[in-house]
Amino acid sequence: MSAAGLSVRDIVVRFGPVTAVDHIDLDVAPGEIIALLGASGSGKSSLLRGIAGLEPIAGGSVAWDGLDLSRTPVHQRGFGVMFQDGQLFPHRDVGGNVAYGIAGLPRAERQARVTQLLHLVGLAGYEHRAITTLSGGQAQRVALARSLAPRPRLLLLDEPLSALDRALRERLVGMLRTTLKATETTAVYVTHDQDEAFAVADRVAVLIDGRIAQIGSPGEVWRDPARADVAHFLGYSPLLPAGVAAGLGYPDPLGDKLVAVGPGGLVTDPAGRRLEIVEQVDHRGYAAIRVRIPGDGTAVVRAPAQVPETAIAVRLDPAQCAVVAASPDGADRSGAPTM
Ligand SMILES: Nc1ncnc2c1ncn2[C@@H]1O[C@H](COP(=O)(O)OP(=O)(O)OP(=O)(O)O)[C@@H](O)[C@H]1O
């Protein structure tokens, strides 16, 4: 092992009979941000904790710059960890919290670092604020600044924004990426939120059942999901067999592949196939019209507004669909998140 940065090889994390992490390999280059994205129970936190040394590993290795750390205690790995609840010290002010891990630095240097980090997270001038007066979003920004202060060679973030509401998460995720990039921090970021993973990461690893089902840039993973269950988890719905897709105007011969319909993948077209309307719901800027796919559940068509009809003519837009291999048991064709 000589690769720069983090090299995880064949790592296994078990809890009794449960294999939470099932022989995973993962490389993270210096300065790179990787998101571990997956449903609840897919093994994201266990992998992160295994890398940190917070969970014993049943097999495999964790190395930094080619040096095996598997037997190195947590606090000697040079890694930082940030959790959902930033766990700030209530008896210290904001500046005292950020400076916590750099007590050994000369005072002027310490203060300069605190000032720089508070500026980066959008809290310039907050040094003397009491922790108890901060909003949830401000507290997580302080927690981020505190995690970055000792310049960890790797920062492990476990759902750092998930306790916040959606609007705040969307605002903070941009700040988070900007801050990690500005400090050239190498990071592994655990989230179950697809938008958050895509917004923060250089590469996204999709975990299913303790394994990495796919890893790539956000654009690659979205445009070309490796498997039906990955497409499903990313929010493609439904996944249509070739015959059904062809009936909705999908042009290419597909064999036994499936057409994964992305948001906006089904469009209104007067020359298209008329499908029964099941339900109509207004959204900001469009109406979501749910239609019945013959023999294959339902799908949503986006239209400018609701229509006073019981059926609507639609076709698939190939540019908003992906083609994926069917899984042998077809188990991943139902229950996907919708738009
Ligand atoms: N301390 C533990 N004891 C027993 N089983 C555990 C423990 N921690 C995790 N598991 C099990 O390991 C599997 C993976 O859990 P893990 O928390 O890593 O998933 P996750 O993807 O991070 O999920 P979530 O998004 O819900 O946190 C699950 O089946 C879980 O029940």
From TrEMBL:
GO cellular component, one term: membrane
Annotated EC: 7.6.2.9
Keywords: ATP-binding, Cell membrane, Hydrolase, Ion transport, Iron, Iron transport, Membrane, Nucleotide-binding, Transport
Name of the top EC class for this enzyme: translocase
Lipoprotein is among the record's keywords: no
One MF term in the entry's GO annotations: ABC-type ferric iron transporter activity
Domain ABC transporter: 6-234
Highest taxon above the source species: Bacteria
Cited CDD domains: ABC_Carb_Solutes_like
Protein name: ABC-type quaternary amine transporter
